[in-house]
Design goal:
With about 525 residues, the protein is of the alpha/beta class. Helix content is about 50%, strand content about 15%. It contains 19 helices and 14 strands. InterPro entries: DUF3987.
Length: about 525
C-alpha cells in the first residue's frame, strides 16, 4: 500500500513540475491522514405505511408502487393531490367548533428523487383518471359548442326577420315595432371544464379559473423550472398569484390595458410536480436565505416527500389490478361530479364531537412547539402550514371513504391525517437539512466528482466553479465545500508561488485516489 501511495505522490510532483511552478510545503506521505467518511447530511425518513392511504384508494396506489418498483410515497402523494384538485373549493372544512374559519382542501405536492426513480411514470399513472375526465369533458364541450353555434346563427336570422317585420309596423303600430327590435337573447357560450394545466402564464391561468371557479390542478413534471422562473425580476405578479392560489378562497383582479379589468371570484390552485435532489437543495438554500424566494412559497408544498430509493429491485411483470383501478377511478368520477351540484353551493364539513377533541389537542401541541422557537426557521414556517394541511387531508379522506356521513368528519379520517403529518414531518426535516448544513451537502457532492476523476489530482477553486455543478454555483459554496473536505482529510490546501500573487490549489489525498481506483 505504501508503494502505491508513494507512486501517487510522485505523479503529483511530476504534474506540478511540468506546469513550471513551485509549491510551498510539498506534501509527503507522513502528513496525510486517512480520509474520514463525511457525515450523512440527509436525516432518515420513515418508511411508507399503506394504512396512510384512504381505504378506497389503497389497493390501486400500492399496486402501482409494486409494479413500478418505486417508493409508494410517489403515487400516494400524486393520488391525494389529484383528488384535492377535483374537490377544490366546492367543499371546505371548519376546523373549529364555533369559529367560521374554514379551510379549502387544495393540496400542493412535491416528490423528490434521483433520475430513474420512476417519479414521472408514477405521477403519470395516478393522473390518468383526470386525463380521462378531461377527454370526456372535451367531447361534451365540442357537442355543446356545435349546438351553441347553430343557436347563435338562428338568433342572427331571427333578429334580421324581426327587423324586417318592424319596418312594416312602424307607421301602424310603433309599440309592436319597438318590441320586435328588442335584442334577441343570445345563449351563453359553453365553457370547457379543465382539470389539469401543464404550462400557462399566470394571466392565462386566471382566465381558465373564470371558467373553472372551483379550482384546477397545475402539474409540472419538473417543478424547478416553474419555481426558478418566479424568482426572476419581473415575475412578482406570477408569484403573488400562485401564493394566493394556495389559499383557495381569495378573489383576484387583473387590470390590463387592452384587456381591461378581469375579476376572478376565487383563485383555487392545486399543484403537483417532481424535482431532483440537487435542484431541491439549491432551491431550499435560496428559499431560506432571505432572498427573493424567501416568502413561504416552498413551505406551501405540504405534501413534500423525499423517500429513500427501494433497497432491492424485484422484476415485477404482471397485469394491473383492474378491479382496484376501476374502483379508484370511480372515486375520481364522483369527486368530479361535485361540479354538477344543481344548487351551486359550497359544502361545509365539520368534525364529529370526538374528532373535535382530538383536533383541539393536536392543534395546541403544534402551536406550543412553534412558540418555543427551537426549530430551524424554514422548518418552523413549513410546520405552521400544517394548520391547513391536517384538516384538509381529513376532509379529503372523508370525501373519499365516507361521503355519506352527513358532512361530518370522524376520528378515523382525522387520525389518518395526523399520521400523515408525522410521516411528512420526517420528509420536511430532510428537505430543510440542505439549508441547515449546506457545506456538508456541497462537500459530499464535490467529493463524488473528485473520486470520479473529474478534477484530476490537483485543482483550483476556479476550476471547480467553472464546472457549474449543482450546489457549486457560487464561489462561497465552493469554498465552504473545500473547507469541509480538508477537515475530513480528503484534500490538502497548498499555496502556489509563480512570481506574482500567490494562489491556492487543492491536492487530493493519495489514499482517496487508491480507494477510487
Amino acid at each position: 500500500m505504501r508503494n502505491e501511495l508513494m507512486l501517487g505522490l510522485a505523479a503529483l510532483d511530476e504534474q506540478i513540475e511540468r506546469q513550471g511552478e513551485t509549491v510551498d510545503n510539498k506534501p509527503d506521505i507522513e502528513r496525510w491522514g486517512a480520509p474520514t467518511e463525511l457525515p450523512n447530511t440527509l436525516p432518515a425518513v420513515p418508511p411508507f405505511n399503506p394504512s396512510l392511504l384512504p381505504e378506497k384508494l389503497r389497493p390501486w396506489v400500492m399496486d402501482i408502487a409494486n409494479r413500478m418498483q418505486c417508493p409508494a410515497d410517489f403515487p400516494a402523494v400524486g393520488a391525494l393531490v389529484a383528488a384535492s384538485s377535483l374537490i377544490g373549493a366546492r367543499a371546505v372544512i371548519q376546523p373549529k367548533e364555533h369559529d367560521d374559519w374554514h379551510v379549502v382542501p387544495n393540496m400542493w405536492g412535491l416528490i423528490c428523487g434521483r433520475p430513474g426513480t420512476m417519479k414521472s411514470p408514477a405521477l403519470a399513472e395516478v393522473l390518468k383518471p383526470l386525463h380521462r375526465l378531461e377527454a370526456d369533458q372535451y367531447d361534451r364541450w365540442i357537442a355543446a359548442r356545435n349546438t351553441w353555434l347553430l343557436d347563435s346563427k338562428l338568433t342572427v336570422l331571427q333578429s334580421a326577420d324581426n327587423e324586417k317585420k318592424a319596418k312594416g309596423l312602424v307607421g301602424k303600430d310603433p309599440a309592436a315595432a319597438r318590441a320586435l327590435l328588442q335584442a334577441v337573447e343570445v345563449p351563453p357560450e359553453p365553457t370547457l371544464r379543465r382539470h389539469i394545466v401543464n404550462d400557462a402564464t399566470f394571466e392565462k391561468l386566471g382566465e381558465l379559473m373564470l371558467a373553472n371557479p372551483w379550482g384546477v390542478l397545475s402539474y409540472r413534471d419538473e417543478l424547478h423550472g416553474l419555481l426558478t422562473m418566479m424568482d426572476k425580476p419581473g415575475q412578482e405578479g406570477a408569484r403573488a398569484f400562485y401564493l394566493q392560489g394556495y389559499d383557495g378562497d381569495k378573489d383576484y383582479t387583473f387590470d390590463r390595458i387592452g384587456r381591461g379589468t378581469v375579476r376572478i371570484k376565487r383563485v383555487c390552485l392545486a399543484m403537483l410536480g417532481g424535482m431532483q435532489p440537487g435542484r431541491v437543495q439549491d432551491y431550499v438554500r435560496g428559499a431560506v436565505s432571505g432572498g427573493r424566494s424567501d416568502d413561504g412559497l416552498l413551505q406551501r408544498f405540504g405534501l413534500a416527500v423525499w423517500p429513500d430509493p427501494k433497497g432491492q429491485f424485484h422484476n415485477v411483470d404482471q397485469l394491473p389490478d383492474v378491479a382496484a383501478r376501476e374502483d379508484a377511478w370511480r372515486i375520481y368520477e364522483r369527486l368530479a361530479d361535485l361540479d354538477h351540484d344543481p344548487n351551486d353551493e359550497q359544502e361545509i364539513w365539520r368534525f364529529s364531537p370526538e374528532a373535535q377533541l382530538i383536533f383541539n389537542d393536536w392543534r395546541v401541541d403544534l402551536e406550543q412547539e412553534l412558540l418555543r422557537g427551537e426549530l430551524h426557521p424554514a422548518l418552523e414556517s413549513h410546520l405552521a402550514k400544517y394548520r391547513k394541511l391536517i384538516p384538509a387531508l381529513a376532509l379529503i379522506f372523508a370525501k373519499i371513504d365516507t361521503p355519506g356521513s352527513g358532512l361530518v368528519i370522524g376520528q378515523a379520517e382525522l387520525l389518518r391525517a395526523i399520521a400523515w403529518g408525522v410521516h411528512l414531518r420526517g420528509h420536511a426535516t430532510r428537505l430543510y437539512a440542505a439549508a441547515a448544513t449546506p457545506e456538508t451537502a456541497g462537500a459530499a457532492l464535490l467529493l463524488k466528482k473528485i473520486l470520479a476523476g473529474q478534477l484530476g489530482t490537483t485543482f483550483t477553486p476556479r476550476q471547480v466553479a467553472q464546472k457549474c455543478w449543482t450546489g457549486m454555483a457560487t464561489p462561497d459554496a465552493v469554498s465552504k465545500a473545500l473547507e469541509v473536505l480538508v477537515e475530513y482529510e480528503w484534500l490538502q490546501r497548498e499555496v502556489r508561488r509563480t512570481g506574482g500573487r500567490p494562489s491556492e490549489c487543492y491536492l487530493v489525498n493519495p489514499a482517496a485516489l487508491v480507494q477510487a481506483a
